[in-house]
Sequence to fold (224 residues):
Amino acid sequence: MSAKRSSPLRVAVLASGRGSNLQAIIDAIEGGQVQAQIVAVISNKKDAVALQRARAHGLPDLFVDPKPFAGRPDSREAYDGALLEILQQRNVELVLLAGYMKIVTAVLVNAFASRMMNIHPSLLPSFPGLEVQKKAIDWGCKLSGCTVHFVTEGVDEGPIILQGAVPVLDGDTPETLAARILEQEHKIYPRAVQLFAEGRLKVDGRRVLIDDGKPVGEAIISSS
Ligand code: GAR
Fold:
């Protein structure tokens, strides 16, 4: 797990929507802050803006239609099996879920154990799931943020790699808070990828350590 990876690291991004985190990673790669190459951008949604972003940067984009798998008792596993084939064919070393709104099954989780990351717009373990910015406001939180974590079978449960924190302001709506959090997402996701590319992440139970033995999950506090 702490071993050095290919240079540049071979990355696939799974995305269902707008793809702003994908864009942040593309920009960080193009800007030289992240030593990786995106070898596939895959979506379960044909019209995902993420696929358009991939095309605009000359990256291979693939729509994998869930419909042919629907109705089978193992539809989710079968779909993930199709994704796994693509990922293995392309020798993918790290899978990034970036606004991928489909629960991944053991088929992918086991094949990419400690090699698949997700970004989530809350300070996990608070508020896993959906509509989490609204939940943070409704709960009266003073801080919220985002988390990059390794993916395990439990939704939003895997070992935390990095977190970014932002204040929750009195006048916040879910939209204004989401926008503030998103700025942090675009910082910590590329950073987590680069730490992985450098072979510096080591999973020790629930904790992710950097190769000097220090936790890397330090909070980045934003005053904006
Ligand atoms: C991001 O805020 C990401 O954290 C969230 O979806 C958004 C995708 O935005 N992911 C989840 O809620 C996953 N549980 P993007 O498509 O612009 O990157």
User: Anything to note?
Assistant: Residues 174-197 form the longest helix (24 residues).
